[in-house]
Structures are given as C-alpha cells and as structure tokens.
Design goal:
Blueprint: E1 20-26, E2 32-34, H1 36-41, H2 53-58, H3 62-78, E3 80-89, E4 95-106, E5 112-121, H4 123-159, H5 163-177, H6 181-193, H7 197-202
Antiparallel strand pairs: 1-2, 1-5, 3-4, 4-5
Helix pairs in contact: 4-5, 4-6, 5-6
Length: 204
C-alpha cells in the first residue's frame, strides 16, 4: 500500500492539500488496510474500527451504494481498473464527496486476490468552485441589469416612451431575433457610441 498520497485540486489554494488516503483489500477475507488519511476521510482514527470491505460499503451514501458495489463486483470478477466520483457519510453523519480509483490485481490463477486504490475527498474543492460560479452568476446578473437599464433609458429618450414601454421594445427585439436581452441592450449601446443608436432602433 502507498504510504503517502498528496492530492491537489483546483480551485484550492496552492498550499492546500485535499484529504486523501489509500487502501488495500484482501479479497478472500474481506479485510482491508487503510492509511491514516483513509480513516480521516471517514471521520475516524486508526484503531477506531477494524477496516473491512463491509465497513467501506457501510459508509457509502445510500443513493450511491448500488453503483459503487456494481463497480467493485465487476473489478473483483475480472480485474482491471475503475474510478468514480461518489458520496460517503462519515461517522459524524456528514456527507463527503470523494473520488476513488481502484485496481484489482489478478493472480496467475486468473482470480482476483487483491485490490488497491486511493480516495480523495473533493468536498471542499467542489464547494469553493460552486461558490465561485454563484458569485460570477450574481455579478453577471447585476452587470446585465445595468446594461439593460442603460439601453432602456436610451429607448425612452429616443422614442419618448415610459420605462415599461421602452423595456417592451427591447424584449420584443430579443424575442424576435432570438437573442438574449442583455445582448440586445449591448448592441444598442455600442451603436450609440458610434452615433447610430437611432438607426439601429429603427430596425426594432
């Protein structure tokens, strides 16, 4: 079994290491060896439990347990490698998202006698990435709103319309051209920069 495994995943800081661990399975007995990191991912310390295949499966998220078991069954029958992203529940009841890679080793007899692999806890990395995406979406929404408001003001001035009617002009153009509203607004603003706002608006 690998004695040490360091895993680094974007968008974690450069110096941040994802929790990770390694494992080995003796197929005949079902007994396993877990590294310290493997115990930690499950909220355990070495000595808290005797690691076995049943213990490993017991911590799988109920929804993910069946596909995980199917992968293991396939590998233990014919050997080979496999990997999957799934969820586990640690001893504190916390849901963790992990990436596991497994290699089933075939003996000269053709039987799989041993399997080894590693597990990386990607929970924090995925959480940060989700937060980044949400922030970008919020920033984009506010940015789009500002552009649309600016274009709406131009329509109000050029056509002597109230705010609601000006918005409907932009919305109608968006629907007719099958173009997102903020892109219609940007088109009008760009035209205004070149002194062609009235000309473009006539095409609406």
């Amino acid at each position: 079994m690998w004695s040490k495994l360091d895993a680094y995943l974007f968008p974690l800081p450069v110096t941040a290491v994802c929790p990770s661990g390694t494992f080995e399975l003796d197929v005949a007995s079902g007994n396993m060896q877990w590294s310290e990191g493997m115990f930690a991912i499950h909220g355990l310390r070495p000595g808290d439990v005797v690691p076995t295949f049943d213990v490993l499966m017991a911590h799988k998220h109920p929804v993910d347990r069946e596909p995980v078991q199917a992968l293991w069954a396939d590998l233990l029958e014919g050997g080979g490698q496999g990997a999957l992203l799934h969820r586990i529940i640690d001893v504190r009841g916390r849901e963790r998202r992990v990436f596991s890679a497994i290699q089933a080793v075939t003996a000269p007899s053709g039987q799989v006698e041993q399997a080894r692999g590693f597990m990386v806890d990607v929970t924090q990395s995925l959480r940060i990435e989700s937060q980044h995406a949400a922030s970008e979406a919020i920033e984009g929404a506010f940015g789009h709103k500002a552009v649309i408001e600016q274009a709406k003001g131009m329509v109000m001035a050029l056509r002597s319309l109230d705010a609601e009617s000006a918005f409907q002009v932009l919305a109608a153009r968006s629907q007719h051209a099958n173009v997102k509203l903020h892109l219609v607004a940007e088109e009008l603003i760009d035209a205004a920069v070149n002194g062609k706002a009235r000309e473009v608006l006539e095409g609406y």
